Amino acid sequence: MKYIEEFRDAELAKTLVTAIKSKAHPDRHYRLMEFCGGHTHTIHRYGLPSLLPDHVEMIHGPGCPVCVLPITRIDNAIALANIPDVMLCSYGDMLRVPGSDQQSLLAAKARGADVRMIYSVDDALKLAQLNPQKNVIFFAIGFETTTPPTAFAIKQAEALGLSNFSVFCNHVLTPVAMDHLLQDAESVHLDGFVGPAHVSIVIGSQAYEAVSQKYQKPIVIAGFEPLDVLHSILMLIEQINAQRAHVEIQYTRAVSREGNIRSQTMMAEVFELRPTFEWRGLGYIPHSALQIKSSFAAFDAEKRFTLPQSTGVEHKQCECGAVLRGMKKPMDCKLFARVCTPENPLGACMVSSEGACAAVYAYGRSQT
Amino acid sequence: MKGPKLNIKHGCIDLSHGSGGRATAQLIDQLFFAAFDNQWLAQKNDQACFTVNAGRMVMSTDAHVISPLFFPGGDIGSLAVNGTINDIAMSGGTPLYLSASFILEEGFPLVDLQKIINSMAHAAQQANVAIITGDTKVVERGKGDGVFITTTGVGVVPDGITLSGHQARPGDHVIVSGHMGDHGVAIMSLRNHLQFSTSIKSDTAALHDLVHHMIATTPNIRCLRDPTRGGLATTLNEWARQSQVGFMIDERKVPVRTEVASACELLGLDAMYVANEGKLLAICAPEDSQGLLTTMRAHPLGLHAEIIGEVVHDPRYFVQLKTTTGGMRMMDWLAGEQLPRIC
Lengths: 368, 343
What we know:
The complex is a heterodimer. The longest helix of chain A has 16 residues, at 226-241. Chain A is 37% helix and 17% strand. Chain A contains 15 helices and 13 strands. By secondary structure, chain A is an alpha/beta fold. The two termini of chain A are 33 Å apart. Chain B has helices at 22-36, 39-42, 76-89, 110-127, 182-188, 208-217, 231-243, 258-267, 289-297, and strands at 56-64, 70-71, 74-75, 94-105, 130-139, 147-157, 173-176, 223-225, 246-250, 281-284, 306-312, 319-322, 328-330. The interface between A and B is large, with 47 and 30 residues.
């Protein structure tokens, strides 16, 4: 398969690993954060930690939109699903995330709530058209990758005059989160970032330049294939050795400096910044998330429905927060693999296929 | 039973077909007996008697609730026949007879039922296995997904052949009979919201003839299993637990069709966990693996067989994979349904 097999080639991987080993100074510890959960998944799925030298350490970042959604928002989604005549449409991963009291959308579905698993917001629009008697709510999550389709769906709903479609918006932003991580004095020390792939297709590499300059950290935007990640690690090590701090694009076959202008325009048309938003593990971050503009209020589930107050209590020993900040590894959590498993997830990091705990549990336990 | 002909073209199952009365008898005569047609069914008893040659008997049962009922490469009928034949075959035994019980939903079109029954008859005939007894029940509309079929099979295992999942030993080799993931992806291509046009067909097939040839050249095969639900990864994990061993598999050696791999990429699925219905996994002693491979590749159902890895000592019973990129990782039990990637 073009663009897939070439980027998984074992011989080329060996070449890159040899180059990494020769460029990485033996007496220096390189702490690199892969921001995006998709990269965490690639790293573990292809067994990259077993290929890298010990002093090149990959630290998992908070770039998993399922994982960073605070428990209060899950509780809100469950409350919306339980409203009579509501059909709540959600991506698969969100269905199993535990809310307060270990409730989940899947559990709500089993008790009679109309919860549908969909693959794209398009499916939710179609369901709204086919079911005029239902209030279809799309549970929108994701960084900038999934935000333009949500914006497009809202505009489509307006054009179609759909009165039974709305969005529960939980879209969050990437460069702001990176800034927050680096700003936090208690955060783990980082030497550089492997930057997200698909997010960058939308926002462009320029979106990271301010963060990179402010904190003097190199950021290399990597594709999702294992050779992309290895190549990006090499590029970061070369920058760190030369004491450079630039934004570079490794994923040249898809990412440009400007990004996708049309998507950016559409996002700006439909969404505006929330003053603040809670992130699991990172706390409240100002201007880090999006809400639907008042001109599209008819499609804003938070305006159409009353959301209950939720105290949102996490499991006491769940270390998702620390894992998301890179302060702890999944194995450092007392619950990991003992009580918290993919079958019985106690925190979001174990549910999502992009969560660090899920990735290490599924792929990495044999290497610990 | 003589009587008015069923209106197969336009007729449906109704509750009278399940009552055990005249309507039931007509349905069984004109659809089931007409297609399955053998000496046992011709006697019209509630049971079938048969003699067996010397050897141990083997029995297996499977319920089939697949949706959609018809898919590229087969249907619930051929699946029900081949699936149970394969479970028998994995013991090294020769499958001889099947029973088939049907739970039919009120309103199910007779023309579809006939297609399924004919498909079963064809699959059974190809496999030289007879469907000798059965049952039909009807449930009200909404209480069944069209049709559920349960098949039970019996066969005979030749003396000296013992295959079991607890026999794998460190050093043994693992062989797969062909491409992984065909059936599961063919099914998913039809499910509601996963519509994409593809040339992928289910690989449903009866494997007993392939097994017969394999045992002829390699009588002390340790284990055989067909990787159905949960795919290759699940079978290996089951064996790891049963035999109390670990596995080292080379991802580059596992054959997957390009179309199947592409579909899996699109959906964020892992072909290692996707169901197969016409493939088997074998574990044998290392000195036997080349000979076994040659035998398998000479058979139509084993043309793409490959040695994919080996059994190792591992007190944790982990299945490990050397990835296409050369790194090592675990291939764990499947957790829930496979969910596609979201961004």
